[in-house]
Amino acid sequence: MELKSTKTLSGFIELLPAQQRCFDECAARMQRVLKTAGFAHLDLPAIERAEVLTDKDNWDEIETQMFLFQKGDTKMGLRYDGTVGLSRYVAGHINDLVFPFRAYQFARNYRGERPQRGRYREFYQMDLDIMGIDTLSENYDAEIVATLANAYGAVQEFIGPVNIRIGNRRFWNALFEKLNLTEQQQRAAFILIDKKDKIKDFYDGLVDEIGVDAADEINKVFSNGCRSFAGASSDIDAAITEMDNFMSLLDSMGIKNAKIDLGIMRGHSYYTGIVFEFFLDRFPELGAIGGGGRYENLTSKFSKTKIIGVGAAVGFSRLMVALMDDNKIDLSSFEQPVKAAVLVMGAEQVQYAMGVLADLRNAEIVSVPYLDAGKKFKNQVEFADKIKARFSLIVGENERKNNVLSVKDMLSGTQQTLDIKSTIELLKTV
RNA sequence: GCGGAUGUAGCUCAGCUGGUUAGAGCGUUGGUUUGUGGUACCAAAUGUCGCCGGUUCGAAUCCGGUCAUCCGCCCCA
Fold first, then answer.
1. A56 and A101 housed in the same domain
2. Which 256-285 positions of A have CB less than 7 A from strand B?
3. I need a labelling partner for A337 at 20 to 30 A (CA). Which of A172, A230, A305, A314 fits?
């Protein structure tokens, strides 16, 4: 019989047990930080109506980017990030929620694009957002960034320290206005600035799009800093003041690893104010490991009420898989979860062994039995060794008759005979 | 959608200037007197060499096509 492939579909991820434990631990720690900051956990549907996911009508074109399908007359698709579903959710439950509304999601998202390194078709993303009706203070922007920084801080022992770069769309909009750029020129300039670090002919490209004079002004932002434009216009001043305020709020919350970098743009067109990206100090080559910003009008297609938000997303799978694949995370602490392997020598001992197992578990000792009692004892010890059990608890005829256990220390190889109570005491102290 | 690379045992790969029964390491199973693992030694099992076609006396090896995977673009809603 021909064997079927055991490989996952391209772009899909699965982890080995130790990796998964590490993944779960990091996910739990980061979520705990968000819960402490009062973010409500939302677990929204993975499938949305196609019209929620896209405004485009060209089914063939968007099918290359998303997973779309049809049941009866309903076109639907898998969500590609948390923001779209959240917008629908908030707009739909506007009377049931208290604003400013803060929520986080930790969920799988799906993209239909062709996979490549660090880009998957199915991945976990952590989204956190604060949304307000009509107004939402820019002070929340700082709170979002500080909260996310703390979430990364909770897993610092695995991923190392992060640094934060802060951009500001408002500043650029004000500058573009001042430079009298057309809408088309603004869009072109946006894209070039966003890709600034990736492309070589940044300046030449700018000149092509918006002319020498404007290109020189934009270059000045990167050479002399945004402050050199102080007084150029009231909008520019307001943007600079906004950034100053933002940075001092971060400082108040103990976040010292942030700096302004106006090259940070973010690809999404919906951002309107502060934008930010997080990077790893130790592995800058991984690129942004999370980011976000302030947006407006994201819910306009669902509600007439104006909802303003600031949010962030963490590419959690991408981050963890990139680090684990290159052995940048030490998994040794995740490889030894079993405290006791209960080895059973002969079917007559099974009943006694099961009682021992229940006692161990009541005492919250992670314990695993080997219940093929007819197997050679050698195989049983080998099993205990392979699962890296700290102790083997041997149950043979003698042990059962005397109501004791042979407790073998798998590191030293030494062995002693103890009753169940003393065994549990020993295991709890190790 | 475009470009590059790769497809050989469960896994990682060698073999590829064409030539008898296709190899290694790891893993798996069994054994080294059967109540004791991590080391060592011995042995065994497993492949239509991705698929289709062509060249040839002869193809894992050369050529064409196709599919798949990986990498890089495009795209990034």
1. yes
2. 267-269
3. A314
**What does the pLDDT look like over A30-84, one tens digit per residue?**
999 999 999 999 999 999 998 888 876 666 666 677 888 888 988 889 999 999 9
Strand B contact residues in chain A (29-68), C-beta within 7 Å? 53-56, 62, 64-66
β-strand pairing of A122-133 with A307-314? antiparallel
Sign, Cα dihedral of A212, A214, A216, A219 = negative
Integer CA distances (angstroms), A73 to A26, A67, A175, A181, in order: 41, 17, 48, 45
The whole-number Å distance from A9's CA to B56's C1' is 39
* CATH at residue A48: 3.30.930.10
Cis link prior to A100 (omega < 30° from 0)?
Answer: yes
Say which nucleotide is closest to residue A195, CA to C1' distance. B76
Q: Angle at CA A181, nearest 5°, toward A180 and A182?
A: 120
Domain span at residue A190 reads 17-325
So what's the ipTM on this one? 0.81
Last residue of a domain, one of A282, A299, A325: A325
Q: What percent of chain A has pLDDT over 90?
A: 60
pLDDT value of residue A283: 87
Shared domain for A365 and A302, answered yes or no, is no
Question: In Å, what is the separation between the CA of A52 and the C1' of B66?
Answer: 38
Q: For residue A115, name the pLDDT band (cuts at 50, 70, 90).
A: confident
